[in-house]
Amino acid sequence: MAVEKFLPVAAFLALILLLRHAPSVIAGDIVHDDDSTPKKPGCENQFVLVKVQTWVNDKEDDEFVGVGARFGTTIVSKEKNAKHTRLILSDPRDCCNPPKNKIAGDVIMVDRGNCTFTKKAKTAQTANASAILIINNQKELYKMVCEPDETDLNIHIPAVMLPRDAGARLEEMLTSASSVSVQLYSPRRPAVDVAEVFLWLLAVLTILCASYWSAWRVREAADEHNKLLKDASDEVPDTINTGVSRVVNMNMKAAVLFVVLASCFLFMIYKLMSPWFIDILVVLFCIGGIEGLQTCLVALLSRWFKHAAKTYIKIPFFGAISYLTLAVSPFCITFAVLWAVYRTHSFGWIGQDILGIALIITVLQIVHVPNLKVGTVLLSCAFIYDLFWVFVSAKFFQQSVMIVVARADGSGEDGIPMLLKFPRIFDPWGGYSIIGFGDILLPGMLVAFSLRYDWLANKNIRNGYFLWAIFAYGFGLLVTYVALNLMDGHGQPALLYIVPFTLGTLLTLGRKRGDLQVLWTRGEPERPCPHIRLQHSGEGENVMFDQVTRKVSCFALFSVPCSVFLFGIRWRIIATLNVPRLSLAKKRKMEREEDVKVGANKFSERHALGTGAQSEKPEYKEAPPAPLFEPGELKSWSFYRAGIAEFVATFLFLYITILTVMGVNRSPSKCSSVGIQGIAWSFGGMIFALVYCTAGISGGHINPAVTFGLFLARKLSLTRAVFYMVMQCLGAICGAGVVKGFEGNARFEMYKGGANMVNHGYSKGDGLGAEIVGTFVLVYTVFSATDAKRNARDSHVPILAPLPIGFAVFLVHLATIPITGTGINPARSLGAAIIFNRDHAWNDQWIFWVGPFVGAAIAAVYHQIVIRAIPFKSRP
Question: Does 752 share its domain with 831?
Answer without folding.
Answer: yes
